[in-house]
Amino acid sequence: MEGKETREEMEKSGMIDTWMRKHRLIYTGATKHPFILSIRDGTVDFEAFKTWLGQDYIFVRAFAPFVASVLIKAWKESDDSSEMEVILSSMASLNDEIAWFKSEAAKWGVQLSEVVPQKANQDYCRFLESLMSPDVEYTVAITAFWAIEAVYQASFALCLEDGSKTPAKLREACRRWGNDGFGQYCNSLQKIANRHLGKTPDDVLTKAEVTLLRVLEHEVEFWNMSHGAA
């Protein structure tokens, strides 16, 4: 009975918020990474930014089929058609995002065709592919989807806050993910995830929490790779 009451208490505030409090350290590591702080403080090594640019282009190309797989799971498992519309909006924006990476790479002299995925990127893309399996529940996949988007939103929004010294030529990149509209989209994903987490069996709930933690770990490793950290 005590365990049930604990879960009921968590559901009142939303499972995502509960997990964010529980795993605050790793979440902070993902959203306030030294690479992001260096952008905000104006001390970023532009070679590190160029590394991130090329590697994230590769990641986005792997992210697109993952989002498509979440859409299929929503079609099969969700009883709310509005959820598909939120996911569809993400798929529509990914085409524009890939075009942005190509344009930005040209500005920075990054030859995308010559970029080789580094280990952290390869590991993250393999993890995404594992979540595309039909055996992975929609609840687990939508939780991962929210986390991936939310980390970028929180990170780049930090670089747009009053008092930030983000270099002018990086502000457009920060606005892509740090703007209010993207924040509202992330809130929509969080509401969807919370809705399904609130009614899922305990074993799936555990899988979703573990998956969330793995996303955050991969995000930290991705920033480490860009920052040149070991």
Could you describe the 3D structure shown?
Mean pLDDT is 93; it is low at 1-5. The protein is globular, with a radius of gyration of 18 Å. The chain has helices at 2-13, 15-22, 24-31, 34-41, 46-77, 81-108, 119-131, 138-158, 171-178, 180-197, 202-227. The protein is an all-alpha fold. The protein is built from eleven helices and no strands. The longest helix is centred in the N-terminal third of the chain and has 32 residues, at 46-77.
The general outline is globular
Helix content: over 70%
- Which series of helices and strands comes N to C? HHHHHHHHHHH
Q: State which percent range the strand residues make up.
A: under 5%
SS elements, strand count: 0
Question: Over the alpha carbons, how many angstroms does the gyration radius reach?
Answer: 18 Å
Average pLDDT rating: 93
Q: Biggest β-sheet, characterized? A: none
Q: Class by helix and strand content? A: mainly alpha
The stretches of 5 or more residues where confidence is low (pLDDT under 50) are 1-5
Report, as a whole number of angstroms, the end-to-end distance.
46 Å
**What's the tally of helices?**
11
Concise summary:
This protein has 230 residues and is mainly alpha-helical. It is 79% helix and 0% strand.
Annotation keywords:
hydrolase, mainly alpha, Thiaminase-2/PQQC, Haem_Oase-like_multi-hlx, 230 residues, Thiamine_Salvage_TenA, disordered N terminus, 11 helices, aminopyrimidine aminohydrolase
